[in-house]
Amino acid sequence: YVQRTLAIIKPDAVQKAEEIEDIILRSGFTILQKRWIHLSPEQCSEFYSEHSSKIFFPSLVAFMSSDPIVVMELAKENAISSWRNLIGNTNSHKARNLEPESIRAKYGRDEQRNAVHGSDSEMSAEREIRFFFGRSIVEPIPTDQ
Ligand code: CMP
Fold first, then answer.
1. Number of separate domains in the chain
2. Which CATH number belongs to the domain containing residue 65 in this structure?
3. Mean pLDDT value across residues 3-18
4. Predicted confidence band at 26 (pLDDT cuts at 50, 70, 90)?
5. Ligand 1 mean position, distance from CA 87 (Å)
6. Across the beta sheet with 116-118, what order do the strands follow?
7. Whose CA is nearest to atom 21 of ligand 1?
8. Distance 60 CA to ligand 1 centre (A)
9. Ligand 1, closest atom to CA 63?
């Protein structure tokens, strides 16, 4: 069934945003909503709160608040796993070995600067879409793509 997911083009890849959006559209996703935004460190800490105990958390927050990002609400059949498959392994080096055609293989640099983000479950997709777009409702979900 048609799902929604949240995609982020991170600071290390925003200069490639148009190329990445092309890949997204050619892969059959519909971009329901899109925003450019420069998050504060506080907003990044809230967005990534599930990682707050990780050793890389302060560095992740600094990175994600360093420059503007592009956030998009995507729709597609099985959008969550479909987008996660398209972006590849979290670690860009591993992505280059395992999924050389993935977005992180092409545009990511390392474990942290990995070009893009994708929601990992329906629960996080809902939370993350609401985080950036509030409760705005876009109906109906286009089903012809
Ligand atoms: P993302 O999928 O947005 O979810 C959490 C982010 O934390 C991840 O992408 C990376 O940007 C970052 N991250 C995950 N693991 C590490 C790591 N081991 N070292 C540094 N950053 C990481």
1. 1
2. 3.30.70.141
3. 98
4. very high
5. 13
6. 30-37, 69-77, 2-9, 116-118
7. 112
8. 7
9. 11
